[in-house]
Design goal:
This protein is α+β, with helices and mostly antiparallel strands and 156 residues long. The chain is built from 2 helices and 8 strands. The protein has a 6-stranded mixed sheet. A hairpin with a 2-residue loop joins strand 5 and strand 6.
Length: 156
């Protein structure tokens, strides 16, 4: 596991579940600023994780019409389209379970559009990955889980 410090958070990350301590003001931040602040914080956490694991962040909150991708990163193994799900405890289900088949289709459509628009710069031979980051905040505890290659879009 790799430990890092980022915006006052001391974290340990790997591809499995890890508990971390967040600053005491984290709960207050989310109460005061709501869902958007929680989502931004989760995306910040995920970007730092990706950077620490050799990724270059290409885009955040990339939009095309009604389509959106939270994070697009480039790594040695290809391009990653990352959906970030952040929740505060108690949660009814795991955050990653919110990436439904419908959501996967939307992300895949957005990824296809992104690749066609950026083909000139990225080339045609990149492996494409669809990843999910799941973050649960429980007071001062932060649970961060990253699921590389979480799904493969299939059209029937």
């Amino acid at each position: 596991m790799k430990a890092y410090s980022w915006e006052g958070l001391v974290s340990q990350s790997s591809h499995s579940t890890n508990d971390r301590q967040a600053p005491d003001q984290t709960e207050k931040l989310f109460d005061m600023k709501g869902k958007n602040a929680l989502g931004r914080h989760g995306e910040d956490e995920t970007c730092q994780y990706l950077i620490d694991h050799g990724h270059t962040i290409l885009e955040r909150n990339w939009r095309y019409g009604h389509l959106e991708i939270d994070i697009i990163s480039l790594a040695g193994d290809g391009i990653h389209f990352v959906e970030v799900k952040s929740r505060t405890a108690p949660v009814q289900g795991e955050p990653q379970e919110a990436v439904t088949a419908s959501k996967q289709r939307h992300i895949a459509s957005a990824a296809g559009k992104y690749m066609s628009m950026k083909q000139k710069y990225l080339g045609r031979d990149l492996e494409v990955w669809f990843d999910v980051a799941a973050i649960t905040y429980d007071g001062a505890q932060v649970e961060f889980r990253y699921f590389p290659a979480a799904y493969v879009p299939i059209y029937l």
